[in-house]
Design brief:
Elements (H helix, E strand, L loop, with lengths): L3 E7 L4 E7 L2 E4 L8 E9 L2 E9 L5 E7 L2 E4 L7 E9 L2 E9 L4 E7 L2 E4 L6 E10 L2 E9 L5 E7 L2 E4 L17
Antiparallel strand pairs: 1-2, 2-3, 4-5, 5-6, 6-7, 8-9, 9-10, 10-11, 12-13, 13-14, 14-15
């Protein structure tokens, strides 16, 4: 069995995205000026996919993922964004995350690089995990409001279900079983 772990490490000057296979580190190719953070990893066959956030030359966080060390930018760097979760089904790559609208983060996922927003941007909302069963896309996430209350949520195909109300909570993972 091989064990893969995604994360980042401080190199003395900045944070560097990397993953470890059986305890051996692989630094993800630098495609950013500043810090980079790996958040999730999935291995399909011989392909290694890692989600990440990286800082561009303007100091803006960009959502991205690497496939076998080759970067795929999900956002153009004009708004702060991040990628937090990844699932691969057949030839489709789904990445969950968030992107700023200038005042709040919008929860979204990208399917093969095409963004799908699941929140309206009126509050800070972001995706923490993603699962795909058949053609259904499930997302777990968190929404915070001006009072700093965090509401745990999940979406199925964009339809929202609140897990908590008016109490601070956070969810980080979703798993779906089928008959």
């Amino acid at each position: 069995n091989d064990i893969y772990v995604a994360g980042y490490e401080y190199d003395g000057t900045k944070y560097v995205a990397k993953y470890w296979k059986n305890g051996v580190a692989t630094i993800l190719p630098v495609t950013v000026v500043g810090d980079s953070y790996a958040n999730d990893i999935v291995v399909v066959g011989n392909d290694v996919y890692v989600t990440a956030i990286g800082t561009n030359a303007s100091g803006i966080l960009v959502a991205k993922y690497w496939k076998n060390g080759v970067v795929v930018n999900l956002t153009d760097g004009s708004n702060f964004a991040g990628a937090s979760a990844i699932v691969v089904k057949g030839s489709d790559v789904y990445v969950g995350g968030r992107e700023s609208n200038g005042s709040n983060y919008i929860a979204k996922y990208w399917k093969n690089g095409t963004a799908v927003s699941v929140s309206d941007g009126s509050k800070n909302t972001y995706v923490t995990s993603i699962a795909v069963v058949g053609s259904d896309v499930y997302l777990s996430g968190i929404e915070t409001d001006a009072t700093a209350i965090s509401i745990s949520k999940f979406w199925k195909n964009g339809v929202l279900t609140n897990l908590t109300n008016n109490t601070t909570s956070q969810v980080y993972s979703i798993f779906v079983t089928s008959n």
